Amino acid sequence: MKAILQRSIALFALAAGMSSVACADEVKMRVLGWYGNQPQSQQVERPFWKDLPKRSNGAFSANFRTIDELGLKGFESLRTLQSGAFDVVSFQISFVGGDAPVLMGADLPGAAFDFDQLQKNLDAYRPILEKELNDRFKAKLLTAWSFPFQILYCKGDVKTLDDLKGKKVRVSGTYTAKLVADLNAAGATLAGPEVYQGLMQGVVDCAITGSQYGNSNDWFEVAQSLSPIPLGGAGVVLQVARNAFWDKLSAEQQAALSAEMKQLETALWDISRKGHEDGINCNVGKQPCSGKPGKMQLVQPTDADVREVKQLLKTSIVPMWIEDCSKFSKTCGDDWFRTIGAAAGITR
């Protein structure tokens, strides 16, 4: 870990070479974004940081880099914040679940089936996120938002979750693999670029990813059924600031930056909602579509499917997560049920 952090600091020094808070008049920030090939980064986050000096009348400026620009891996993101290499860092919580399982409670598969519910869940869980980030990572939560849901692409005619029995399903994540196994299917690990060939050659029968990612990688050419049931959760992202940086700001600066970050959070939720629908439209050949038109069959989850996933979340996924998170928080299970559980109507 020490070598990783030293490398991230060295890389950033070459890319940026600037101080955190240069003077009382201008706050200069070192900002690490998530992967730069995402629309959220290209269309929202990068322009936000670029235009920040103009919008704030020179009160703030940022040197923004994405994690892939610096050659870092997803699991390194939170560690770079702790190293002091950056003042503000974005990370998808599923990539840091090993270091921060309490945070992973915000995105367990089956807790939300639409964006409205997902936002309610995150709003309810936000105090838990804030406390964990502050206590364990000396960080302040700035935004919490999500990528589009991780949905199901399948070869052939798949109408309900019962049709997954005996099939091989590409998964990305421990909890999704557990959920798929509970549905009597076999989870398989394939990198995103390998899935097209995997589906075509029968290595897997189904695969889970976001609607836009699957469309941009032509999965609609080798899969016929598309179910928007989010067996892979969503892809919740947090943007956090180092306490050491945040505490140097005046109360007025903190209020101004918080207001800016709230606007960014709103814009990121908006593009994810629109992107999710756009990707589904494209895969099934419906307009509007900004991607590639496909001919997949859209299969809406049945009420029985939704009930089954919720039940498996309660009886299998949450207990598995509590086993992980209780090593760091003795109250994580109670905290989850009184926040996300209550928001989603899931009781013990």
What does this protein structure show overall?
The chain is an alpha/beta fold. It folds into two domains: about 1-145 and about 235-275, Bacterial extracellular solute-binding protein, family 7 (D-Maltodextrin-Binding Protein, domain 2), CATH 3.40.190; about 150-230 and about 285-345, Bacterial extracellular solute-binding protein, family 7 (D-Maltodextrin-Binding Protein, domain 2, 3-Layer(aba) Sandwich). The chain is built from twelve helices and eleven strands. It has helices at about 1-15, 40-55, 75-85, 100-105, 115-135, 175-180, 195-200, 210-215, 245, 250-285, 305-325, 330-345; strands spanning about 25-35, 60-65, 90, 140-145, 150-155, 170, 185-190, 205-210, 225, 235-240, 295-300. The strands form two sheets. The protein has a six-stranded mixed β-sheet with strand order 7-6-8-5-9-11, with helices on both faces. A five-stranded mixed β-sheet has the order 2-1-3-10-4, with helices on both faces. The chain is globular and about 60 Å long.
Element-by-element helix/strand order: HEHEHEHHEEEHEHEHEEHHEHH
Distance between the termini: 38 Å
Number of helices: 12
- Quick one: CATH superfamily of the largest domain? Bacterial extracellular solute-binding protein, family 7
Topology:
Layout: H1 2-15, E1 27-33, H2 39-55, E2 60-66, H3 77-83, E3 88-92, H4 101-104, H5 115-137, E4 139-146, E5 150-154, E6 168-171, H6 174-182, E7 186-189, H7 195-201, E8 206-210, H8 211-216, E9 225-227, E10 236-242, H9 243-246, H10 251-284, E11 297-298, H11 303-325, H12 332-344
Parallel strand pairs: 1-2, 1-3, 6-7, 6-8, 9-11
Antiparallel strand pairs: 3-10, 4-10, 5-8, 5-9
